[in-house]
Amino acid sequence: MTSLDPRVGKVTDRIIERSKASRRRYLELIAAEADRGMRRERLSCGNFAHGFAASGEDKPAIKGLRGPNLGIVTAYNDMLSAHQPYGRYPEQMKIYAREAGATAQVAGGVPAMCDGVTQGQPGMDLSLASRDVIALATAVALSHGMFDGVAMLGICDKIVPGLLIGALRFGHLPMLLVPGGPMPSGLANKEKQRVRQLYAEGKASREELLAAESASYHGAGTCTFYGTANSNQMMMELMGLHIPGAAFANPGTKLRQALTRAAVHRLAALAKNRARPLGEVVDEKAIVNAAVGLLATGGSTNHAIHLPAIARAAGILINWQDLAELSAAVPLIARVYPGGSGDVNDFHAAGGMAFTARTLLDAGLLHGDMLPAGADDFCAFATNPALDGEELRWSEVPASRDPTMLRPVAEPFLADGGMRLVAGNIGRAIFKTSAVAPERWTIEAACRCFSDQDQVLAAFQAGELDRDVAVVVRFQGPRANGMPELHKLTPALGVLQDRGHKVMLITDGRMSGASGKVPAAIHCCPEALGGGPLARLADGDIVRLCADKGTLEAVGVDLAARGPAEAPAPPVGTGRELFAFMRDGADDAERGASAMLDMMEQSL
């Protein structure tokens, strides 16, 4: 095995050292749960009888403790295209469990909202908070003590992080995520983007826009761009939490069904032997592997928030400096839309996760000695599954089948992973350079300040932004309004940039996991609410954003000497007032933007 790159080793060692106390407390928790926690054999007869009363033909096996009982936590709904395929999974998985001498029950459901539906709408204010709701719902589902292993059915943006955060409270149990796969490719991404920008300029009708969007998002499965949902799948593979190669097989195929069956059989074997519990699989090496994969493939900036939150749930402390140093060590080897022309189906056809894992392992950029749940050895994740008759077979992908989309580490698209930490008198923020042309990595312009994205679009339509401009959208942080994505701004800002202007976005909110070609300093900490420096910027201030130097500065301005701008009223309507307690308790984006992680840590 290739020796680990010393730069990756340095970051890993620093995370291990920083996390010593919190990781020790977490491991003590799950050891105590394994030793003294709730299990079927410890339930009273009344408790136990309730747990198998409606289990049909599996009732004798569950009652007689004949083999492991697997809990299924499902994010199924049939409005969200990525999760619609999960509707039939539980009945199939029960059959697969019986084949392996096990049983399975649906432990519970978690919500799964679609950012594609809520993007730019009031419901988007609930998006990030839904991750914590999912974690809480997962804990409720697993609290019955009926299960020896856990299968997680979830795939999209906040859903996978939420499932993991909740399941890590039950980290003494083995767990696998069971993906559903991306929908087949639809309308070409460049054409979709072209119609969006025409609509932003008033040159395409709503009917034309809807036709383009419907041709792009057209069936069951995840959206095919490389946003947060598909970045989730990549990260879960490199953390060893999938069956190898499970990420990007399409729904409704025999291969997808065979991979689900393999996941159930594998989980049954782990549960029978009480092997590879989740809390031991998700260690510092697994977290670093996820970060390396994210950077190497140009994945979603949302994971600069989710990965610290997942890590903290396992007692591991990482920050944006860690990500920035890994980014400097890890080259960009994939160009997937919006960072390239092809989508995740094209990426998979080019060699996908198998080639990605192999070239990163060969370069010493992944921890090949980590403990995966989905295979005996991590090297299995450098192989690609296919059906040989009815049997699954895995094989290596020795070379990229499309070097315009996927390249070896020795011939990258960029020398670094393209996720930079920028910091200065405005705060700390993330700049995803991998999707931005290098000539735009340094931008200086006078700022125009807004308190929501609709104000930006109104100014754009009025022609007020038709110049070099630093668009500041503040009071979008986790405590202000729940930190919505601001993807609604992408077409308008893209139009300004295409007109030849120098344009940047600075915000304490999020962009989409499909962050695009406009330079953006996002997730700015501290957020504007509460008097952060972002709240002290004024129209006309000169702002300089430089990815090369890692700076985010208001030039020649003493922000501390100014009072903050007035914050908007808290959001009301569409259920947003129900989440006020989560917003009030949320921590900074760099720590995971969560209301519950601090309290969780204090309890250990």
UniProtKB/TrEMBL annotation:
Gene Ontology MF terms in the entry: 4 iron, 4 sulfur cluster binding; metal ion binding; phosphogluconate dehydratase activity
List, for all copies, the residue spans of the domain called Dihydroxy-acid/6-phosphogluconate dehydratase N-terminal.
68-371
Recorded hits in InterPro entries, A to Z, give:
6-phosphgluc_deHydtase (IPR004786), Dihydro-acid_dehy_C (IPR042096), DiOHA_6PGluconate_deHydtase_CS (IPR020558), ILV_EDD_C (IPR056740), ILV_EDD_N (IPR000581), IlvD/EDD_N (IPR037237)
Q: Which UniProt keywords apply?
A: 4Fe-4S, Carbohydrate metabolism, Gluconate utilization, Iron, Iron-sulfur, Lyase, Metal-binding
Catalytic activity from the UniProt record: 6-phospho-D-gluconate = 2-dehydro-3-deoxy-6-phospho-D-gluconate + H2O
Tell me its EC number(s), please: 4.2.1.12
**Cellular component GO terms held in the UniProt record:** cytosol
- Gene3D superfamilies named among the record's database cross-references: IlvD/EDD C-terminal domain-like
The free-text cofactor remark is:
Binds 1 [4Fe-4S] cluster.
For whether the record's keyword set contains DNA-binding, the answer is no
Kindly report, in one word, the top-level EC class recorded for this enzyme.
Answer: lyase
One Pfam family cited in the UniProt record for this chain: ILV_EDD_C
Q: Name one GO biological process term.
A: Entner-Doudoroff pathway through 6-phosphogluconate
Q: What family is it from?
A: Belongs to the IlvD/Edd family.
In its UniProt entry, what is this protein called? Answer: Phosphogluconate dehydratase
Source species = Sphingomonas xanthus
